[in-house]
Amino acid sequence: MVLRRMMLAGIFFIVTCLTINTGFAADFKIGVMNVQKIIVSCNAGKEAKTRFEQKMKDLQSKFKSEEDALKKLQDEIKKKSSAWSEEKKAEKVREFQKTGRELQAKTEEARFEMKQMQDKELEPILKALEKVVADFGKKNGYTAVMDSKSGIVYFDEKIDISDVIIKELDKAMAKK
To answer: What whole-number distance in Å separates Cα of residue 53 and Cα of residue 56?
Structure first.
C-alpha cells in the first residue's frame, strides 16, 4: 500500500515535471531510494528476516517426515503393485492420493501463515519508513523521493539516499 502510494506519487511527479516549463523544473531536488534494499538492510528488516527464516525452517522440518512417508508409499506402490490384488492396489492408491491431498492442504495453510507473518513483520517497518522518508525529505529540501524499482530507467547514483534512509529508519525503529 505504501509502495503503491509512493509509485503513484512518483508517476504524478514525473507527469507534472513534463508539463511544466524547464525553468521551473530546475528548482526540483529529487532523491531516489531502493525500498527493497532499505527493508533488507535495516536492523528491523534483518531481525524480521531471521524470524521469518526460522519459522520457514520449522515448517519445512514439520513437513519433511510427511513428505518422506508419502514418497515411501509411492515407492511401495511402484515396487509391489504387480504382486497385489486389484483391491489392494486401489486401496494403496487411494491412501496415497488422500495423504497427498492432506499434505497439499497443510502446505497451502503454511504458505498462508507465512504470508501473514511477512505482512505482520513488514507493516511496522513500512509505516516507520514512510514517516522517516517524509521527514527526511522535508528536512533536506527534497521535492520528491522515489523508489528506484518503480519504473525509473536511469538515475545518477549520487542521488540514491537509501543508505542514509537505512540509518534514519534504524534510529526510528530503535525508539520503539
So the answer is: 5
> Residue 40 gets which letter from DSSP?
H
Q: Please, what's the b/e burial string for 7-27 (b: 16 or more CB within 10 A of its CB; e: otherwise)?
A: beebeebeeeeeeeeeeeeee
Using CA atoms, how far apart are residues 63 and 84, in angstroms rounded to an integer? 29
Report the alpha-carbon distance of residue 98 to residue 104 in Å, rounded: 10
pTM of the model: 0.67
What's the domain count of the chain?
1
If one compares 102 and 160, the residue with the highest pLDDT of the two is 102
Q: Give the pLDDT confidence of 33-60 residue by residue, as tens digits.
A: 999 999 999 999 999 999 999 999 999 9
Residues 6+ apart with CB under 8 A from 128: 44, 169, 172, 173, 176
Q: In terms of residue numbers, what domain contains 9?
A: 2-174
